[in-house]
Amino acid sequence: MAILKMKRLRLVSVRSRKDELLRELQKHGCVEFSEIGEEIQGSEAEKILSREESKVMAVKAKHSALSHAITLLNKYAPAKSKLLSATPEVDSEELISEEGINAALAVAERITAADDKIKRLSAEESRQRGIIESLEPWLNLELSLDTEGTERTSLVMGSIPAKIKLSDVESALSQASDEAELFTVSKDKTQNYVLVVCIKEALTAVQECLRGFNFSAVSFSGMQGSARECTLRANEALTELGKEKIACAEQIKSENVHRESLKMACDRVSTMTALAEAEDKLYGTETTVMMEGWVPEENVKELEEIFESYDCAWDTRDPEEEEYPSVPVKLKNNAVTNSLNMVTNMYSLPTYGTVDANPLMAPFFILFYGLMMADMGYGIIMIAAALVAMAKIKPRGGTQAFCQLLLYAGIATFVMGALTGGLFGDAPYRIVHMINPQSTWEGLPYLFSPVNDSELVLYGAMVLGVIHLNFGMIISFVEKKKNGNLMDGIFEEGPLWVILVGGVLLALGMMNIVPALALPGKIVLIAGLVLLLFGAGRHSKGIFGKIGAAFGCIYNTATGWFGDILSYSRIMALMLAGGVVAQVFNTIAVMPAESMGLNVGTVLAFLLIFLVGHALNFGLNLLGCFVHDLRLQCLEFFGKFYSDGGKPFKPLAVRSKYVRAKEN
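Given the sequence above, the corresponding structure tokens read:
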């Protein structure tokens, strides 16, 4: 419900108990360490303090080795996992322990070595296949490939493009040398593979002649025997390589018994990494270590008890206002507002010292989502999915926030669906009339319908937009007052409220609802415009500056407010689109029964079209409503008061992926 107050912590500990103290702080997970190098530079402390030796790279190398080994094990021996299973929980002491890490690293080394060997064998397989492919055109040649000629003759092997006539080549060779002959070994669509025999003295002339016909010589250095014999040896080598690869893969699979120990060791090393990264920011002497960081005010008391037990010297203070941009932000929310954490995290955390938007945004976000989706059937699916996920996987952090948001949005969707009479569109009406075409039942009752009352829904969406935007302005006004900028609030938000009141009074008068309010409405409206123009130009210098500011203010206010309010029409558009698409699928689903009567085939056709159609519509609306609701909050609502750019609070804590620490 708020941004937690932070305290700047400075701590000095004896070196002999540094590791023990850091592990204790890691278990509590409430201190974020920060760099202190800039503070000691140029001071007397720089002469006696030195940075702690970094262990980060070494620990990260271990983590990388273990993670890679687990990935390889999952590749060669995939583990069967239950759908929606909870992550195993262990005591934090187990995660902080270094037990079993060396043994797990030895297993990881064996797995990685076997995989590296498989890669080398695969490379050799590629080479052997390349040899087989290169020898294929020469299989009809009985001559040994290492033969270069005789005492008096030379052999040249190569290829000539198929588009060139070999008779022309033979004629040219006869002119180059009387003792030269061309033999065709094989040919395909692109090349003629030939063997040329000539006396040694004419070799240069023959090569020059062949070059004129795009002749490409081939060489089989290192190969002995005919092409067929070399191909046979290459195939035998491929067979042996395949056996070796299977043996290496089986070796990796045999390490499957160590899967859980590898995961535990990986999480332990991940925890060690967090510890090493924190330690990397410390400075000290031969006997002491100095640390600085941030701690939530609500955790100071429990930390003081820890520090006293470790004989530390420490102090805490409130951050200075100029430090606010660097102060980490931690939000404290209840079960409802926590669900919106994922929204603010996707956008940006608020700056320290400003307002937490989650509790202010939560009612609007959930309401708008329910209005956009507005279907009891879809709401039931969302509620059920959220409850099952929370019961099965027992989520935390961002996953928990997502499940909570899905639950609350599902409840809102169900409620709005009840108000609009939507249950998978108009499915009840269609089903009843499919069974009994003579039925006079008109469907579920509704308070308003996006299809039949689209104008009413549009006006309602606009009214909600005005309320939403003005609520954001109220927050902005309160924040300005708290920060001592009351006059800014009066001249920035105040005129808009006066204009709004004047506009409402004038509308009531002109529509003859309360005719007497027309004149007061005009007066109030003009007064609001005057205040708006005065407020816009009060900081501008010179007559032209004030005129320019006034025109800019009129344009930005008119277009900005019109555009912002018009954005809320998306609530009506999505409600209408979802309902109409659902009705279309329902109409298509009952067509077979309407044309061929009710039977097993038409019922199955109805079920198939109904399930596929609503699955598509549900998936599209689930994402579309979230995106458009997010836009209304982040652009329209946040634009009135939100100060973003907050730095997330990242304390020294137990990190894990495959298991998680039990909550105290």
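The chain has 22 helices and 17 strands. Try to locate this feature in the token string yourself.
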